[in-house]
Amino acid sequence: MLLKRGTHCFISTKYDRLFVACLNILVALDTSEEAGEVLDAATRLVRGKDVQITIVNVIKPLIGFYKDMLPMMGDRDTTKSQAINQASISLKTLADDKGIEPKSIDIILGSPAAEIRRKAEEINADVIVMVTQGNYGLGRLLGSNANGVLYGATRDLLAMKIQVESL
Questions:
Q1: What secondary structure does DSSP assign to 16-29, as a single string?
Q2: Exposure on the CB side of residue 143, measured as CA atoms within 13 A
Q3: Is 95 exposed, middle or buried (0-12, 13-18, 19+ CB in 10 A)?
Q4: CA atoms of 12 and 7, how far apart (whole Å)
Q5: Is residue 35 part of a domain?
Q6: Domain count of the chain?
Q7: pTM for this structure?
Q8: 149: phi then psi, degrees, rounded to nearest 5
Q9: Helix extents (H) in the chain
Q10: Rounded Cα gap, residues 30 and 55, in angstroms
Q11: From the CB of residue 160, how many other CB atoms can be counted at a distance below 10 Å?
């Protein structure tokens, strides 16, 4: 079975294996250990010589989440630039380790779901690839980044479930 999705993305489930050939893929990563698994899976899915992979990482603004810690963190601009620099180095190293040359690695400050959708539109992505860790309890009630991207996305989304080992 071959299913055409969008303009350049094809999905085939022939022989019970998923095969996707896309030309422009947005891979939304954080800097966790699971990021490597997501990047591996994204590259296994793509077939073709002219594939473009864009890696994006969205950092939530500190002001709304850690207000009480701001006095201890020092200058906000310095803290932001350090977070961006660390994420950039981490994702560049990850891409190098995996032998991937992404079109770009973008670190963005903002709401993860909204910024991932915006970036996908900006680069005209055929598909967004990201992780979902299966929230439980309060996390499920509040929703996840993958759910946030899904609702309102005009692009296909491949949300990969990664099993996180409990301590």
A1: G--EEE-SEEEEE-
A2: 9
A3: buried
A4: 15
A5: yes
A6: 1
A7: 0.75
A8: -70, -45
A9: 35-45, 62-65, 70-73, 76-97, 112-123, 138-142, 145-150
A10: 10
A11: 16
**CATH number for the domain harbouring residue 56:** 3.40.50.620
Confirm whether 107 is domain-assigned: yes
Given a contact cutoff of 8 angstroms between Cβ atoms, the answer to whether 32 and 42 are in contact is no
Smallest CA-to-CA distance from 125 within 37, 56, 78 is with 56
Nearest to 149 by CA among 160, 139, 159, 134: 159
Q: pLDDT tens digits, the chain, 167 residues: what are they?
A: 333 344 455 554 444 455 555 678 899 998 877 788 888 877 776 655 568 899 999 988 766 555 566 556 566 677 788 889 999 999 999 999 988 889 999 999 999 999 999 999 999 998 898 887 655 554 544 457 878 888 888 888 888 877 655 44
Asked if the structure places residue 16 within a domain, the reply is no
> Does 149 reside within a domain?
yes
Q: What's the rounded Cα separation, in Å, for the pair 84 and 70?
A: 17
Please enumerate in sequence order all residues whose Cβ is within 8 A of that of 40, keeping only pairs 6 or more positions apart, or say none: 98
Give me the domain span that covers residue 134: 23-161
